[in-house]
Structure formats: structure tokens, C-alpha cells
Amino acid sequence: MAYETILVEQRDAVTLITLNRPQALNALNSQVLVDLGAAFAAFDADPSQHCAVLTGSEKAFAAGADIKEMADKLAADFFLEDFFSGWQSKVVATRKPWIAAVAGFALGGGCELAMMADFIIAADTARFGQPEIKLAVAPGMGGSQRLTRAVGKAKAMDMCLTGRMMDAQEAERSGLVARIVPAADLLDDALKTAAAIASMPPMAAMVNKEMVNIAFETGLAQGLLTERRLFQILSATDDRKEGMAAFIEKRPGVWKGR
Ligand code: CAA
Prior knowledge:
four-stranded mixed beta sheet, binds acetoacetyl-coenzyme A, Lyase 2-enoyl-coa Hydratase, Chain  A, domain 2, fatty acid metabolism
């Protein structure tokens, strides 16, 4: 499939998606959403693919929603198009695991897109921010909600109200990113991590993702109940029998994916 704003390649069971609007520091316009939506749908539907990595360039993961595209829109346009809602239905809805590999700027919608990933691996050059306030707006792709859940109220308020950037070290200390690697190793590290995830029993990977996400949506009692039920459902798979037998027989498991 031909994409205008992203590059997509398959490396064994890992799909690598690269944002590719260098002239705009990978600003997220409507075409990026169309392309990413199609790429994530294809990834989810392809039984040979088990984990994805989304990355940008050395200078910018993405510098935000495309300000030039938004500048002339009226409030009614944003409302009637339900602007930004597609990110939830086309990107967050992805059921298989995916990682954001972030170098350089991840600002506004760029930070929000990274936070849609299951986790973020950051280069030591990464800089995160929600600078929308400087444009007299506020986050629109989940920043005020996901950043607050990730780093807590104090830091989220600091970031949203001052519009300042957080470097990779502060992002790791604050729980926004899973780990930091030297910029030169970012893609390699993210692809190796994705390959490790892709080698896991695929349904178990999808259910683990779902379980952790449920922690963001529900209270503890409901979350624990859902966790037990999902565990019980997973135990019905052929792969569960194989996984436990392989452990006892001291050999690697061979997964059917069901
Ligand atoms: N939208 C559209 N174009 C953008 C852009 C954006 N978010 N960010 C950068 N660009 C464009 C610039 O306009 C410039 O294009 P031209 O060469 O045609 O002028 C090109 O990318 C290179 O950018 P700079 O010359 O500004 O590069 P720099 O190195 O001097 O600065 C930067 C880098 C600090 C990231 C700066 O570009 C910047 O501040 N960008 C905007 C960041 C921002 O405000 N993001 C939030 C957007 S609103 C949003 O995302 C809403 C939401 O919640 C979804």
C-alpha cells in the first residue's frame, strides 16, 4: 500500500512505521492520521505481524498537530469534524502491542501520539512537551489526560501551564518513558525489544496489553476481577498448554497464536 506521509516496512514479525514529513518536523496533519490509521489496521489484520515500532526522525518524533492546517479552521469546523477523534478510533484502537521510539521533539500532538503507544523508548535527545497553551489552545489528542496519568498532577500542570519541555532524563524519572538509550542505538534497541515481544505467544501479548490498559479505565476491584477473568480465558488457549509444557520439558515453546 502507498502512503504519503509515512514509511512502512516489515522486519520479520515486526512492523516498522516511520513518520516522514521532514519539512514539517513530522507535524501531524489529516493525511498522517489517514496513513497511520491504514498502517495500524493492516498491522492488526496481518497474522504474520506481532509487534510494531513507530518512530520519527533524529530531530523530531513529531512537533505536534499541524498548526498550518488548523490555523484557518473555525470552531464549528473542529466541532463538526470532531477534530482529533480519529486518533482514538484509528491508532489507540490497535489491539496488538506497539512501541514509540522517540528521538528529538515530541511536542503537543507528538507527545500525545507517543503516549498512545504501549510504551515509549526514548533517545537521550528526546524532548517532550505540551506547548499548546502558547498557541492559546490546550492539548486535544489526550495530553491533559494521558500525561496526568503518566506523570501525576504536579508535573502535568507544570508542563501544560508553562509549555516547557522535559528532557529524556526527566521523562524517565517521571514515568513517562520506559527507558532511555543513546540516540544512535534507538532504532536498534526498539526493534530488538519489539522482536522480543513478537516472539511471545501472540494472544497473551494482546491480553497483557489489554489488562494494563484496563488499569487506566477502572477502579481496583473491577480491574482485578477483569484481570482474573482474562487470565482464565487465556488458560483455554493451546498456547497456554504449550507454554507450561515447554517450561516443564525445558524447551522453547512453539506458538500457534490461539
Ligand atoms: N505544525 C506545522 N508546522 C510545523 C510544526 C507544527 N506543529 N512544527 C514545526 N513546523 C514546521 C515549521 O513551520 C517549519 O516550517 P518552514 O520551514 O516552512 O517554516 C519547519 O517545520 C521547521 O520548524 P522550525 O523552523 O520551527 O524548526 P526549529 O528547529 O527552529 O524549532 C520547534 C523546532 C521548537 C519544534 C518548533 O518548530 C516549534 O515550536 N514547533 C511547534 C511546536 C508546537 O507548538 N506544537 C504543538 C502544536 S498544537 C497541537 O499539537 C494540538 C494538540 O494537542 C493535538
